[in-house]
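Checklist before submission:
- one chain only
- standard amino acids only
- sequence pasted in full

Submission:
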Amino acid sequence: MKLISKVFFCTTLLWNFLSPALAQTTTGQNQKSYSNREILVVGNPKSPNFSPLPGAEKEAVSIAKLFHTQALVGDAATETAVVQRLTQARIIHLATHVLPEAGVIVLAPSAQDDGLLTAEEIQELHLKADLVVLSGERTALGKITGDGVIGVARSLMAAGATNIIGTLWSVSEQSTAKFMMEFYRQLQKTGDVAGALRQASLKMKQENPNSRDWAAFTLIGSPK
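Returned file contents:
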């Protein structure tokens, strides 16, 4: 808890100093509307080598309803199906296992793929996403190398994604789902990714002072 408190303290200072700058990275998204085809929501892909995430599936279905679209869940969330839609999506929400050190997003396997979307495969995509949300455990982390931290978030940015939201530590499925729903409600109001993340954090803080359940969510932005 001491480590988490220190991280939260540093995060709070960063928000105070950087929120205006971060907001500038998303100013162009204000009042932007998206078609159903531009929203990709994935939850609880069925994989034989990973535990099921029923909470992530409920989260995905709820978020999809907010955007009046259909979530890809369970067996339907294959690597092939997801990749086919990734390059067309402007908002991407992935509620699944992520292996930060290996740089892998876990999806459902099919006859055409192994269900493991690797960092190398991600970098070969041509994304136009304004936002990618990695809703899972420690999804903002990666492997420290001589070239810096290499992980899924960095690969998504290299592929063209503008903003990525990930987590710094594990958060319960229930708390994650609640946070994400509040975040997307705020995002629909303003179109401001940084502002929506901050407002969701403040709302969760009011309801639950335990920073472990809401301070883990972080934004990595790349203005275009």
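Reviewer check: The chain has one domain: 2-221.
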